[in-house]
Amino acid sequence: xxxxxxxxxFALSVLISASCDSESKHIYPPENVVNRVTDFYxxxxxxxxxxxxxxxxxxxxxxxxxxxxxxxEGDPLFxxxxxxxxxxxxxxxNADESAVFITTRDKNGVVKAKISGKxxxxxxxxxxxTKGDYPEILKTKKEPYALTLNPEESKxxxxxxxxxxxxIIDIETWKVIKTSKLKYGxxxxxxxxNSGYYFASHKSSGNISLIEAVxxxxxxxxxxxxxxxxxxxxxxxDVRSMKKSGDGTLxxxxxxxxxxxxxxxxxxxxxxxxxxxxxxxxxxxxxxxVNTLALGGNLGEIAVxxxxxxxxxxxxxxxxxxxxxxxxxxxxxxxxxTxxxxxxGISGKAETTGExxxxxxxxxxxxxxxSTGGRSGDLIFVSVPKDEKIIMIDSARxxxxxxxxxxxxxxxxxxxxxxxxxxxxxxxxxxxxxxxxDRVYIYEIDLMAEQIIKKIGVLE
Length: 460
Hints:
The protein contains one helix and 31 strands. It has one helix spanning 2-24, and strands at 37-42, 48-53, 63-70, 76-84, 88-93, 99-104, 109-116, 123-125, 138-139, 144-149, 155-160, 165-170, 175-181, 186-192, 197-202, 207-215, 221-229, 237-244, 251-258, 275-281, 287-294, 302-308, 345-346, 368-369, 375-384, 389-394, 399-405, 417-422, 427-434, 439-446, 453-459. Strands 22, 23, 24, 25, 26 and 27 form a six-stranded antiparallel sheet that branches.
């Protein structure tokens, strides 16, 4: 009996030791790591922000959600961080900024975290009682990526890169209650308040999925999907990003113009170049192409900054100096390569190569002249990772206004993920992830300043 007891004690000790050893072999990221950043969120206070380190290169065993805040001098300072499952996709923060939802492509699911505190003292944490480094992952289909909330914020809609499914999650019960099929390779999902539909873009086709999700009295969700082909101006497909205009009437889509026969050829003219396509949903539930703009390179993500100059001088922002010192792969592939910069500069060239340059005093659709003689519209930022630049397009001009180039910098930067937010009529921020280079640039936007885009921070 004594020998049996000793044997059991020894076996238990070995198991405990092995478990501890296994735990110690985890590679944890630093608390403010910048590692394959895939998403951003700026709080409504205008000084607190989140960024999502995805760990797409598998350098560590976890991704990380990092909370930072601008100090009184405008410098970004670390506040808090939270481990998340590896190969994180995108995140979604709810309207009252009390919760954040994060997809994980590696673990095929979603986790949620609480945001607590107030401006100047926000914290991010998991629910009390969470065991381990993060809570149990709510499983979805393979490779969840883009996500959004319904207007009531009772449901979370999650799309998938691999096979294109749509998973609908009940927030209260934290269960997947519906799965529907879309075209594979979903790159974006957004909600249109005007029509009540959700739109999903794809890298696998030139279609936009028009999704209607209706809740029944039994708390079930009935989903109908209509695939709408877009009459793209050039052959190919691959919409990498889709965003709404500030007034909600138009949609901007970055289209890479790739096909199976001629994938990623970069010698383009205006008739074959990758396009920024401006779309409008018609009454018969199809998309009308309002405008196309030939760009070049391999387009990445879009960020939209909505403005209203409200000035009696309509040229005030037109001639402002934008100068400053200042591929993720596919849709954020799990592959890797590259580098970025310390002094990325804006070129000062304001080419207009669209069908309508809008410089004849007229404003384009989706933009308007204000009653005070100013302009309202959108600055549309489009990343071009191969060409190491960001193109800035003004909807009021319907053409290219300027570009931020990283070509002449000391470090490489292939920008891909972009995020912009307006904090008033003419002020806000632009966040840029040089995905493969593990660097983030932060720009302050002030359309009434002599230098309208100013680099204020670099995270690396």
